[in-house]
Amino acid sequence: MSHRPTRVLVLNSGSSSVKYQLLDMRDSSRLAVGLVERIGEQTSRLKHTCLGSGDTREAVGPIADHDAALKAVAEELGRDGLGLDSPELAAIGHRVVHGGMFFTEPTVIDDAVLAEIERLIPVAPLHNPANLTGIRTAQALRPDLPQVAVFDTAFHTTMPESAARYAIDPRIADRYRIRRYGFHGTSHAYVSRATARLLGKTPEEVNVIVLHLGNGASASAVQGGRCVDTSMGLTPLEGLVMGTRSGDLDPAVIFHLARVGEMSMDEIDTLLNKRSGLFGLCGDNDMREIRRRIDEGDEEAELAFDIYIHRLKKYIGAYCAVLGRVDAVAFTAGVGENAAPVREAAVAGLEGLGLAVDPGLNAVRGDEPRLISPAGARVAVAVVPTDEELEIATQTYALVGTGSAPVGNNS
Ligand code: ADP
Questions:
Q1: 391 Cβ partners below 8 Å, 6+ apart?
Q2: 125 lies in which domain range?
Q3: Which of 71, 141, 353, 399 has its CA 20 to 30 A from that of 77?
Q4: What is the pTM of this model?
Q5: Is the residue at 364 inside a domain?
Q6: Interval between CA 243 and ligand 1 midpoint (Å)
Q7: Do both 250 and 323 map to the same domain?
Q8: pLDDT tens digit string along 197-249?
């Protein structure tokens, strides 16, 4: 072959879904995107879009497991001349949710890496098994190709012990690997760097609070390009009010539900992870629907919104204290990028901290990073669209595409 392969396939394997994107790293363009949902059910769905032709194909029917799902994806890519057997493919990048304390950087996958991801299953029982299945299936399809794991936790491994440890007996904590790992790290890394760029600075020069508000939600305090605190902990349950997760609560709520409510641990787990947050409070977890209900005078939706905002504000205040000096607050992900009322409410009354939003700028929609604070504001408030797939592809390609040494999170 006369030139290096430049394409990277990014795979995000969940328990019953696989999301994928094929990128060409010469210009970071997308060649194809898609997802397979409801794997293992009769009504699995594959949706595939080829960006070159603009064609979208959708198929519904049983897809038994991840192996079958990935083969179906490979077939769809093949129909567009983008098959997994293509010599243009440089690597496959996998999103891996839990990398523990061990994986601080994207890592080329070998047997030892697989074994370590497996060892972390007790702290990520839902995510890591699905990620492992995705990796093994991809390896079987292209055994010759480098596969890279990009960890959701990696960006947070720079947190000092004072932020990463819970105030419990360290011997017990260490025995069970209990500490604050944090998640959404790929997004926090990408957005904090993009925010620095928006300010015309390097990541090392700025302190940024990143608010990743999607269905899952987390905040992070990033000091000179390094994460010093984040709101998710041992699992993604801690921190902000989310679509279906409670976020912070008194741990004694769990004892109370077990002892007085006679609920099982699995029932409590489901309650707090799947039936709480905005959904638990008002029956809806989509911010668009909640805003629509508030506009119609729905008090339940309004209280859910107020609880969501109150928690968000507390974290903004806390991270101002953690960072000492804040240069920017960046909103990202589905809610952060689209819900102007959330951004407005989250900083309302925080003028004393140098935070304000210009209503006109806040109302503008767009796909590019943009400032929404008034001119001359002490702290920049920004909307910075996240792109986890591009970040995974970039980190993967940096590891394998150029044949150079691994790059750190701050590159
Ligand atoms: P995840 O990746 O965690 O599934 P996303 O970052 O895609 O989530 O965010 C999804 C959420 O974003 C939706 O549940 C919805 O609450 C919110 N959202 C998406 N679009 C809008 C919009 N136009 N206005 C308000 N909220 C939106």
A1: 150, 186, 187, 189, 190
A2: 7-151
A3: 399
A4: 0.93
A5: yes
A6: 9
A7: yes
A8: 999 999 999 999 999 999 999 999 999 999 999 999 999 999 999 999 999 99
